[in-house]
Amino acid sequence: MFLNSRKWDPRGKSCYVTGGSQGLGLALSVLLAKKGANVTIVARDVKKMEEAVKLLEEHRQEPSQVFRYHSFSLNSADGAAAAVEAERAAAGGPSDAYFLCAGNSKPLYWLENTSEDLTAGMDQAYWVQAWTAHAASKLLVREKRTGKIVFISSTLALMSFVGYTSYSPGKHALKGLAETLRSELLLYGIDIHIFFAPTMLTPGYDEEMKTKPYITKKIEEDDSALTSEQAAAILFKGVAKGHHHISGNFITSLFRASSRGSAPSPNAFADFFLDNIAWIAIPIWRKLTDRSVIAHRDEHQKYLESKGLLG
Ligand SMILES: NC(=O)C1=CN([C@@H]2O[C@H](COP(=O)(O)OP(=O)(O)OC[C@H]3O[C@@H](n4cnc5c(N)ncnc54)[C@H](OP(=O)(O)O)[C@@H]3O)[C@@H](O)[C@H]2O)C=CC1
Ligand SMILES: CCCCCCCCCCCCCCCC(=O)[C@@H](N)CO
């Protein structure tokens, strides 16, 4: 609270945005460009990044701003380190802020997941961000620079329900990593933020809807979805204010306020009230949700049969 009394301004700063070619990462890149930052996008598909950089050009504020991209697969230690190094070489030093938006999810029933689905789930929820955080921290410390690392987690790091076995554990793990790093990287003056995103209407969301179990879709109907632009604005505001935990909507704030662990609160007074509301509302929600899951048993049994999962 006292360490961050001044707002962070990205003007003239270098921002590294993983997953910046679409969805939340692209909306955030545009927002940073509009605020006068240099923006580097990192993802795999070059075509999408070329389009993204063209879009950033449309929002250029200063002739000196630099927009570029690097194509790397970030879910391995080597890929993430090579990407951070490619940007260091291009910029002549580390970035000022690393926004880790890359990731996706493939919701399925627990029994439907192959072992590959489950390991890919951890790679695409956790490692795809953790490896960049590791490489970026090492670079910042080596170059004696301070900076920011911003993780993109999910409401599903604070609660979970049927369908998210391959994804929710990795997003929970990011919360643990962020909380540990918030403490440890005080040693180097590196700030850590984590955004708990609610449902966001993005290309990734359209993709996950293809495998999402019916009951999971039903439960999620109560969430208030954000556009990528709305989510990027909320994320940016939280980072600018120096908040460690940033929640995307009211529902997420209820779960955040009631499970904050040793993390600093963005607003301790508001959290007192949110925690009280959560104490009453969450058990009611859970009872109703458990009831719909149980009511879905017969239909689910037929689904398992149709998939040949009953032998
Ligand atoms: N949409 C939602 O409802 C929610 C999303 N989230 C999280 O928010 C973040 C952004 O989500 P969203 O905008 O929907 O995602 P999208 O799927 O729309 O975009 C994902 C971006 O990440 C890149 N990416 C994915 N995997 C890798 C990889 N292994 N290496 C390099 N780049 C990769 C993609 O590009 P390319 O494929 O070309 O590499 C793309 O730029 C994700 O971490 C997601 O888990 C959290 C809560 C809700
Ligand atoms: C009082 C309590 C009321 C609670 C109502 C809860 C309603 C459900 C919340 C669903 C949240 C899921 C958001 C994240 C989705 C996500 O991360 C995926 N789309 C993966 O990309």
From TrEMBL:
Reaction equations catalysed: sphinganine + NADP(+) = 3-oxosphinganine + NADPH + H(+)
Subcellular location: Endoplasmic reticulum
Enzyme class label: oxidoreductase
Enzyme Commission identifier(s): 1.1.1.102
GO molecular function term, any single one: 3-dehydrosphinganine reductase activity
Keyword match Oxidoreductase: yes
GO CC, one annotated term: endoplasmic reticulum membrane
GO annotation terms (biological process): 3-keto-sphinganine metabolic process; sphingolipid biosynthetic process
Main location: endoplasmic reticulum
Domain of life per record: Eukaryota
Swiss-Prot/TrEMBL keywords: Endoplasmic reticulum, Lipid metabolism, NADP, Oxidoreductase, Sphingolipid metabolism
The protein's annotated pathway: Sphingolipid metabolism; Lipid metabolism; sphingolipid metabolism
Function statement: Catalyzes the reduction of 3'-oxosphinganine (3-ketodihydrosphingosine/KDS) to sphinganine (dihydrosphingosine/DHS), the second step of de novo sphingolipid biosynthesis.
Name under which the protein is recorded: 3-dehydrosphinganine reductase
